[in-house]
Amino acid sequence: xxxxxxxxxxxxxxxxxxxxxxxxxxxxxxxxxxxxxxxxxxxxxxxxxxxxxxxxxxxxxxxxxxxxxxxxxxxxxxxxxxxxxxxxxxxxxxxxxxxxxxxxxxxxxxxxxxxxxxxxxxxxxxxxxxxxxxxxxxxxxxxxxxxxxxxxxxxxxxxxxxxxxxxxxxxxxxxxxxxxxxxxxxxxxxxxxxxxxxxxxxxxxxxxxxxxxxxxxxxxxxxxxxxxxxxxxxxxxxxxxxxxxxxxxxxxxxxxxxxxxxxxxxxxxxxxxxxxxxxxxxxxxxxxxxxxxxxxxxxxxxxxxxxxxxxxxxxxxxxxxxxxxxxxxxxxxxxxxxxxxxxxxxxxxxxxxxxxxxxxxxxxxxxxxxxxxxxxxxxxxxxxxxxxxxxxxxxxxxxxxxxxxxxxxxxxxxxxxxxxxxxxxxxxxxxxxxxxxxxxxxxxxxxxxxxxxxxxxxxxxxxxxxxxxxxxxxxxxxxxxxxxxxxxxxxxxxxxxxxxxxxx
Length: 504
Known about the structure:
Blueprint lengths: L5 E7 L18 H9 L1 E7 L5 H10 L3 H4 L15 H6 L4 E6 L16 E3 L18 H8 L6 E2 L5 E2 L2 H5 L7 H15 L5 E6 L36 H13 L8 H31 L6 E7 L18 H4 E7 L6 E3 L3 E2 L3 H8 L14 H6 L8 E6 L33 E6 L2 E6 L4 E5 L16 H18 L25
């Protein structure tokens, strides 16, 4: 066995930070992840870099923020000049494997340092290649060997297994079951070589259904208090419209009332337990093969899901449920810890490089979390985290009042959508400030208002805003971020956070 640590990154899609049992704030049962948390460092305040899939995934793999690595929209292709963790480790003799959703372009082919093993699961992104000759995902082909035939029609008129269809299949042929099998195959094939292996579940992403749909009783689900509260006029318009949309036309519930939302959350928690079951099989095999003691294990999610808070579903907003995710890092020889220091997923690649004994490239904007893993918290209230949002014609956009009901939010015509919603959010200590290209702003005291129901940007908090603005400007200079934000008139005149010129 090699003395250089192996790297296993397991991540989900759209799992908020409370949706594991170890958080202590949810009825969800995730015994295997709880065990991982009890033997590793659990980061209780971890944030994504942008609350949507592709930008966040690219940040995890590159150690860079979205505006730097260039992936600011879903389904973009990561530039070949931006190195990934796997490419860096490949140059040091690691073999690379990838299982599951890629979502950074060219879904079906091995690439970006994960060249030795590639088990794709998604048929829905093949149009990104515009090359149908590459066939189907490996999961598609696996289902065919199990006697299933695709009955759905995908891009280019090709037969596919749609996401809705596969959620109705038996557990033993679910995506998580396939992924666990493929991961175990990789471990068996490469147990005597240093490896970097990334395992990427689609769950608990919509369509919010799985073989575990009956695991949780909706009667046992308690809706968040903010589900019942209206948003006030100080909250950005596009968020108020988004809440109105889900309050009246939520496509993910059978009945758009308390019962329907409880059923939705129950199904979501079932998906989290399904993930846990098959993650347990992976972790058990890691132990059985003698690899656990020499493998860095990372568990996280690309972003969260509002799941009823503020009566919202999904991601693409700057609220805590959408931007905070579970993060567990178990490093060989490190003591188990609970870490309260706010951290970012942009730190994962620098941390892994540090833990395997390699230098962190100067272009990376994340920092190593190794000191926290080895020594614990020092000054958690001094830590600063920044979350981006980039304007695009897509999932964050919602209809204006009176527009026709769309099938999905992302199907709306451009003229039915609000103005730019680009944003930068900074979190430090108890305070969280979000500034939007529209001139709107939000300030929340997370200590007294963890569900972000009261925007206090206009409540005589100028000192807090000034401090956070100064820190945001420093971050922008350090990361070459040229996004320009203006404060609303009640909080001051236009401010460019990029150049540091403030006129108050």
